[in-house]
């Protein structure tokens, strides 16, 4: 069959993704991507270190980022995304900005990180008091809370698993259970950290049950990167992606342009035991 009349495939637009060597959720990232966009993924070199603050520092070194961005350059991505929460918050807000600058210098395109995208998403949602879910140890969870505090975001409750490996094997049931335990009192949103923690299908369930926006590391990373391409992430019944799904929103009200973007941009308690409060779950 002659298919030459079709004129070949449509031009692709690409997001270049740098992920840690142990990242296992490529398929989940793709679920937020519209048909006209491709993901080009590369991983940082393997190091024999468990999930910890030390690992976060190693996988976010500027030299490592530069090598990864150069590996992606042949695919000519229009935006770069560093898909790792701990690797992008371990240096604080200044460290996160420096990572973006290093990636942009090397790739000559706009760059985002998971932790930077998190703050962008919280601004979008007007969230300043949040509940937090992580698979991390207490020390890594605490470092994330310090990063958020630096940006003016307070954590009112948290739940963490204390894992140092195989995070991608955590089932939705455990994620949902942690979310319920983390939400205490009046909060604006729930954040589920770690790009290696599966979250896509659990977000709508938790938003309906908890009646608040629920955002996750992979979700905010893809949402932020795609905004810089002038297109939207795909995520049914997810408040970050669909403004009509937000509490109190009118389904007929068009979303406002994000600050600094054109309007068309819219279409890880001590490891040895539980923390003092809440018997391991706060």
Strand and helix layout:
Layout: E1 13-19, H1 26-31, E2 37-43, H2 53-59, H3 62-72, E3 79-82, H4 85-89, H5 92-107, E4 110-113, H6 114-125, E5 129-134, H7 138-150, E6 154-160, H8 172-182, E7 189-192, H9 202-210, E8 214-216, H10 217-227
Parallel strand pairs: 1-2, 1-3, 3-4, 5-6, 5-7, 7-8
Brief account:
By secondary structure, the chain is α/β, with parallel strands linked by helices. The chain has helices at 26-31, 53-59, 62-72, 85-89, 92-107, 114-125, 138-150, 172-182, 202-210, 217-227; strands at residues 13-19, 37-43, 79-82, 110-113, 129-134, 154-160, 189-192, 214-216.
What would you note in describing this structure?
With 282 residues, the protein is of the alpha/beta class. Helix content is 36%, strand content 15%. The chain is built from 10 helices and 8 strands. The protein has helices at residues 26-31, 53-59, 62-72, 85-89, 92-107, 114-125, 138-150, 172-182, 202-210, 217-227; strands at 13-19, 37-43, 79-82, 110-113, 129-134, 154-160, 189-192, 214-216. Helix 9 (202-210) links the parallel strand 7 (189-192) and strand 8. Helix 3 (62-72) runs parallel beside helix 5 (92-107) and helix 6 crosses helix 10. The radius of gyration is 19 Å and the shape is globular.
């Amino acid at each position: 069959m002659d298919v030459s009349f079709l004129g070949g495939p449509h031009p692709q637009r690409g997001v270049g993704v740098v992920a840690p060597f142990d990242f296992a959720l490529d398929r989940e990232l793709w679920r937020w991507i519209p048909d006209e966009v491709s993901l080009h993924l590369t991983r940082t070199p393997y190091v024999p270190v468990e999930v910890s603050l030390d690992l976060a520092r190693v996988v976010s070194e500027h030299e490592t980022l530069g090598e990864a961005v150069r590996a992606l350059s042949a695919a000519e991505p229009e935006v770069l995304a560093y898909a790792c929460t701990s690797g992008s918050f371990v240096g604080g807000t200044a460290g996160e900005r420096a990572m973006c600058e290093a990636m942009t210098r090397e790739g000559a395109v706009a760059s985002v990180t998971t932790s930077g995208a998190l703050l962008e998403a919280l601004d979008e949602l007007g969230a300043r008091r949040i509940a937090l879910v992580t698979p991390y140890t207490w020390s890594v969870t605490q470092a994330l809370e310090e990063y958020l505090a630096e940006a003016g975001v307070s954590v009112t409750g948290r739940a963490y698993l204390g894992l140092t490996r195989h995070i991608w094997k955590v089932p939705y049931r455990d994620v949902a259970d942690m979310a319920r335990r983390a939400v205490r009192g009046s909060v604006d949103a729930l954040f589920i950290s770690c790009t290696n923690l599966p979250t896509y299908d659990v977000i709508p369930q938790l938003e309906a049950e908890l009646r608040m926006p629920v955002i996750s590391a992979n979700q905010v990373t893809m949402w932020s990167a795609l905004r810089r391409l002038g297109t939207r992430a795909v995520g049914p019944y997810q408040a970050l992606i669909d403004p009509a799904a937000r509490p109190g929103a009118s389904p007929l009200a068009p979303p406002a342009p994000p600050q600094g973007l054109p309007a068309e941009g819219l279409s890880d308690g001590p490891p040895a035991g539980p923390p003092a409060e809440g018997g391991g779950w706060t």
